Amino acid sequence: MENQQKVKNLIDLRVQAKLGGGEKRIGSQHAKGKFTARERIDMLLDDGSFEELDMFVTHRCNNFGLEKEKYLGDGVVTGHGTIDGRIVFVYAQDFTVFGGSLSETMAIKICKVMDMAMKMGAPVIGINDSGGARIQEGVTSLAGYAEIFERNILASGVIPQISAIFGPCAGGAVYSPALTDFVLMTEQNSYMFVTGPKVVKSVTGEDISTEDLGGADVHAGKSGVSHFKVVNEEEGILLIRKLLSYLPQNNLEDAPILSTNDAIDRLEDNLNSIVPDNPNLPYDMKNIIHSIVDNAEFLEIHRHYARNIIVGFARFDGISTGIVANQPNFLAGVLDCDASRKAARFVRFCDAFNIPVLTLVDVPGFLPGSGQEYSGIIVHGAKLMFAYGEATVPKVTVTIRKSYGGAHDVMSCKQLRGDFNYAWPTAEIAVMGAAGAIEVLEGRAIGALTDPDEKAKFITEKVIEYNEKFANPYQAASYGYIDDVIEPRNTRFRVIRAFQALQSKKLVNPMKKHSNIPL
Fold first, then answer.
1. Taking a C-beta distance cutoff of 8 angstroms, is the pair 80, 153 a contact?
2. Could you give the number of structural domains in the chain?
């Protein structure tokens, strides 16, 4: 009988733990359109796969009467389970317990699953819904954050780290997601900022709402802190599962290879005419991407941020591949500070996790102007160059149209160890466009002409001459900088064949403690 009572006590304690802060607070969470920590984990993981850890942990604080209020689990649910049969470690902050605020013991729980994830070589997913540090605990709460940050840093490039912001994330709490590989936020219910609207108002006098200061629209479209913006938590959880399908478990493995019925030699005749005859007219690079990848499936990263460049994951013959592509449909595909940073970080992620990179080029150059220079376009452009030059994964580049000046070098050119560099017959590879080049090359001769008609005729002739020489890929091909000029409709086949040839690629960078990328 005594043993049975002990079993009953255990069952009762488990029921108590699963209620978090109680039915009333759970109801309040649901009323806000939010799920509880355990509901989120159940939605994320394969059915019945979750194994919870540290369910009976409670806080150790005796300040401000907190010793009279304790909850099993202390505001975070931690453990492991599987997604599509692959093990992952997960923690989800429970807003029903002290507003999800971080305590010493909550940090210990989170650090435990992060340490396990590192030992097992498995991804870690953090679901954030917290009011910040638990003020009653003072410096031990701050120390807890730092313990988490250190693990984020050591895990970077070793295991994939994903952060879902499903509620508030403020103050020191924002830095853990910022250190992870991918961040997603929900519309309306999530926000991130270092200091809230009240502090901003008192310090700077600026009157701003929570949403305008740190909502999903702000961080997905303006700051770039969030890689994804989703309508609700259900969409966010499906997105995490989708994202993980493109990633390996760790930096020593390759991403899963999926079987596909999409033939590698599928021709796309529409690509032969997709580039406008007028080189100044835009087109949508995403149409090219969808045409050449497996089953037209492309998971775009940072879709709302720096839209002049596209990054994301797709598959070629079932193999996960990162894609970086200029977008002529937005700012003519020019490289600016934000686009350079966005692409550089994505290339470095792919390189860290053994994911090949395809680069599709149509770039007229770097965005000119004092605003860009003052913002550090030199150092931001150097980040992208550094990322490509440092990367040792298979790299295939296809130049679609323009590839001008320093931007040509930056976009995975042959000299940055591009493995296969192809070009469409529409490619233009030169120091600059014809009009600008003629102004420089023939400026004195143009200035000497006084008759407007003669001047216009002279300029037109020189532009035609320049275009005949540079508005095609054959001069670059004559130097071996372009490995082949390919028919656009055959791009899928040539890209897949290139990556097949590169499967056994071995390239090691010089021994060093670490590089000093221009931050």
1. no
2. 3
